[in-house]
Amino acid sequence: MSDGGFSTDSGDHQKIDMLPDSIENKEIYKARLKTLRDDRNLCDYSHLATENDLLINVADARTLVTNFMSDSKQFLLDKGVQL
User: Fold this and answer.
1) Rounded Cα distance, 32 and 19, in Å
2) What is the pLDDT of residues 14-36, one digit of tens each?
């Protein structure tokens, strides 16, 4: 499980799939968060990229992120974190 730490070192991005075992839909997020990172990098660094170049379309990305935030919130609440 991740310790909650972070770094601005680009190597830290390799840890994107290190999710707690008890988070709902872990395997879905583990696979798809890397794809979102790749899409973000495309948008950051390719001035010629268009929406059609994204690996996940915008509507699906929005749904994925909404679900991830919901599952993350529930995970934290289950661990006793006051939000």
Assistant:
1) 12
2) 777 789 999 999 999 999 998 99
User: Taking 90 as the threshold, does the pLDDT of residue 80 lie above it?
Assistant: yes
Residue 3 lies in a domain: no
The whole model's pTM is what? Answer: 0.77
DSSP H or E segment with residue 38 = helix 26-45
> How many domains, the chain?
1
- Assess if residue 37 is contained within a domain: yes
Assigned domain for 38 exists: yes
29-73 residue pLDDT tens: 999 998 999 999 898 888 888 999 999 999 999 999 999 999 999
> Sign of the C-alpha dihedral, residues 54, 40, 5, 78?
negative
CA R_g for the chain: 14
Q: Would residue 10 count as lying in a domain?
A: no
CA distance 2 to 14: 12
